[in-house]
Amino acid sequence: MGRPRQFTDEEILDATQACILANGPSVSTTMIAERLQMSQAALFKRFGTKEKLIIAALSRPMLRNPIAEIMGVGPSKEPIRDQMIAMGTAILMVMRRVVPCMSMLHAAGIDPTQLHGENSPPIQGRKYLTQWFQAVIDQGRVQQVFDPHVMAVGFLGMLHARPFRETILGDTALECTDLEYVTQLVGLLWTGIGLEEGA
User: Fold this and answer.
1) What's the predicted TM-score (pTM) here?
2) Does the residue 4 lie in any domain?
3) Which domain holds residue 180?
4) Is 139 in the same domain as 125?
5) 33 and 93 housed in the same domain
6) What CATH code is carried by the domain that includes residue 136?
7) Are residues 36 and 122 located together in one domain of the fold?
8) Among 158, 193, 196, 198, which Cα is nearest to 178's?
9) Is residue 1 part of a domain?
10) Structural domain tally of the chain?
């Protein structure tokens, strides 16, 4: 008889996340184990408890924010409007993975804000975006000075709204692409803060 297949942590967490997103956080560990064709005992030996398994599987999209690293470098020489559209579209893609997982964590009675505290990637991302807008102001690439913290929270809020409404509220009536959505949002902000043409 051959040896049982060895699964990596990533494979187990992928399967767990898929099962939870499809069936809710009350999904049985039996179903997860069957999906992987491994025993429940092996599953618990790896992660200890069902809660630890759920947290590990659903917190992954929040563990690393590659967009935050890009924002941390500061504005490039490219037009600010183009940079905001690129960042916004990338952030929206990340949020499409994060929102369903956060929703399931809440449904499981787990507070996502307690997992990483002030050092969580979402908070770090907001701080980086605030610094990014401050750099835009310092470089004189806007006509109107604004509060960079307010702008960062507002911009992120508008980006979060679409996946939140689709996932939590089931509001999927908006038919434009994410790129079209972000481009229009940036256009509205562009008018409000008076960015220089070609900045």
Assistant:
1) 0.81
2) no
3) 61-193
4) yes
5) no
6) 1.10.357
7) no
8) 158
9) no
10) 2
Main-chain dihedrals φ then ψ at residue 195, nearest 5 degrees: -65, 140
pLDDT per residue over 98-127, tens digit each? 899 988 998 888 887 766 666 777 788 888
DSSP string, 92-109: HHHHHHHHHHHHHHHHTT
- Is the Cα dihedral 70, 75, 79, 85 positive or negative? positive
Q: Note the pLDDT tens digit of each residue in 171-189.
A: 999 999 999 999 999 998 8
d(CA 143, CA 194): 5
Q: Residues 125, 61: contact at Cβ < 8 Å?
A: no
Is 159 within the bounds of a domain?
yes
Percent of the chain whose predicted confidence (pLDDT) is above 90: 49
Whether residue 121 lies inside any domain: the answer is yes
**Same domain (yes/no): 96, 177:** yes
Query: What is the tens place of the pLDDT at every residue in 63-84?
Result: 766 677 777 788 999 999 999 9
**Which DSSP string corresponds to the chain?**
-PPPPPPPHHHHHHHHHHHHHHH-TT--HHHHHHHHT--HHHHHHHHSSHHHHHHHHHSHHHH--HHHHHHHH---SS-HHHHHHHHHHHHHHHHHHHHHHHHHHHHTT--THHHHGGGSHHHHHHHHHHHHHHHHHHTT-BSS---HHHHHHHHHHHHHHHHHIIIII------S-HHHHHHHHHHHHHHHHTBPTT-
